[in-house]
Amino acid sequence: MTTLVRGNDPLLQPFTLKHLTLKNRLMSTAHEPNYAEDGMPTERYRLYHVEKAKGGIAMTMTAGSAVVSPDSPPAFGNLHAYKDEIVPHLKRLAEECHEHGSAVMIQLTHLGRRTSWSQADWLPVLSPSPVREPAHRAFPKEMEDWDIERVVKDYAAAAERMKAAGLDGFEFEAYGHLMDAFWSPATNLRTDEYNGSLDNRLRFTLRVLEAVRAAVGPDFIVGMRLVADEDWEKGLTREDGIAICRKLVATGHVDFLNIIRGHIETDAALSDVIPIHGMRSAPHLDFAGNVRRETKFPVFHAARISDVATARHAVADGKLDMVGMTRAHIADPHIARKVAEGREDDIRPCVGATYCLDRIYEGGETLCIHNAATAREATMPHVIARTQGPLRKIVIVGAGPAGLEAARVCAERGHKVTLFEAAPEAGGQVRLVARAKRRKEFIGIVDWRMGQLGKHDVAFRFNTYAEAADVEAEEPDIVIVATGGLPNTDCIEEGSALAVSSWDILSGDVAPAADVLVYDDNGGHPAMQAAELLAEAGSTLEVVSPERMFAPEMGGLNYVPYLRTFQEHGATVTISTRVGAIRREGNRLAVTLTSDYTDRPVGERLVDQVVAEHGTMPLDELYFALKDASVNRGEVDYAALVAGRPQEIAVNPAGAFRLFRIGDAITSRNIHAAIYDALRLCKDF
């Protein structure tokens, strides 16, 4: 265990919570990364939290949330707190985090209506009243008296398991779940003793607290992550929220409040609770500070506090006792250690992409858009160790996210790196993304890597279109082709040459026309970002997609700002439709629309401009020009790559170097894939 202290930095001062001393003010709040196996926090889950403990965090909060009852089926890969077999898994996780001086807690809940009956055991979804939640679409059963009795006992039993696991405490989840559904007039329509006055609406919560205290005793730490203002005309008011906080404190059963503001029953509402890039930083921090001032009680909070300066201000100004930097720790689990060591400029920034949460809500696991080691701690390093083998000369061609990550990892390994880039500056497609004001934070992906490379002796060759002779003249041991790709608009059977690409619009090379049709045959951000730019430029806009849903590669949180823009500017979205042909008609373009569901055309449009998005085609000429001169002829041992082992294929004894290509130079994918390609390949050089 290492104690981290740096002067009088507010973030590094300890905080005493009951009997527990937290070594600094940084925490990761509860979230469900969807790493569990059959509801159990096995190796991947454990290593994810242990890495944050290694990085100096004071407390990591597991689960988001662990469910206490079988009729609260997992909606996001939740842990099963209602099963005894969870205890040894959590015990090992806690013990390993404790070895590094980090406290461990967990979040417990009954999801109530925020799940689906068609999961797990197919039991009816519960809520105080049969009010449907749009996000999960279930029609809940109104809780009966025996449901209430059963669930209260389930909470207490789950709490006992958490104590048996050696955790430092837990918090209840009370925003958008069962407990707070009793509080809110939007979801509690009952006519019995569980509705009406505030005390009645709190009756279920207080019964749970009393049962839990009887189960775990007075000393075990119990907190509440709760909504103190639903910011909703028909929901819980700020006044009632503050009153609830005071009543909870007065019970003596609660040791801290973890404050939330907003409601989460739709994607649009959720994005205000969990803001993404382009939205306000720390929008609810002042509100949380007001709760702390009015209750004079320990207050935690997390909502887009993504930088150390804001976190430091939150503590120094007395707004918070513990600062949740949850997405920031997904991007860099070593924040506290870097702050203590005076290396704040080495902290990998959270750029607000929210790739992490979008993946959860779409059924995947949490991944950071530009830290490929997160969630892969068993095979991928967060700290790149210097090689113990011979130093190599490595040539990398292309300074997009893949090439920059490859250069960073190779340089930290100690190798001599030369980086060629045809453009005058680094960034590749990330620079296109960051041209939009709303997405300008993405440039942090580039800036951080350039800052890290500045600490190493990397030779940059900008404004250089590298050919095979240029690469071979460097006499490299390893060549990495990270040249990316170029837009592929060949997704229209007839007249595709008349379309421009998303890149043309995003780069400014082609000006927006008056009347534009965007054909999105990709389903991700590029077409949506181009369409957003066009709408804001005043174009009359229609977005056409062959998919049965809008932008299927994009999660709900990122979907929100695009759709808001489209609706504000009167754009039309047409799904299940293809652009079959484009032809000139005077100085305009006639577009024939087709569908997979009929052999006949389904429509005609007359527009000024067609923007087509169909991913990229790899810029691979250099790779193929070098292939026959390489030791491995470009071949990759996929089994070794997946297992995290070095590449050792040698099929050409006459070869002069090993050759690899990464990112979109292979095929059209995304930023995370490009960075993961680079990390898992280069970490063993």
How do the strands and helices of this protein lay out in sequence?
Layout: E1 15-17, E2 20-22, E3 26-28, H1 43-54, E4 59-67, H2 86-98, E5 103-109, E6 126-127, E7 141-142, H3 145-164, E8 169-174, H4 178-181, H5 198-201, H6 203-216, E9 221-227, H7 238-251, E10 256-260, H8 267-273, H9 285-295, E11 299-301, H10 308-316, E12 322-324, H11 326-331, H12 335-340, H13 355-361, E13 393-397, H14 401-412, E14 416-420, H15 429-434, H16 443-453, E15 459-461, H17 468-473, E16 478-481, E17 485-487, E18 500-501, H18 502-507, E19 515-520, H19 525-536, E20 540-544, H20 556-568, E21 572-574, E22 578-585, E23 588-595, E24 598-607, E25 609-613, E26 616-618, H21 621-627, H22 638-643, E27 658-661, H23 671-682
Parallel strand pairs: 3-4, 3-12, 4-5, 5-8, 6-7, 8-9, 9-10, 10-11, 11-12, 13-14, 13-16, 14-15, 16-27, 18-25, 19-20, 19-25, 20-21
Antiparallel strand pairs: 1-2, 17-26, 22-23, 23-24
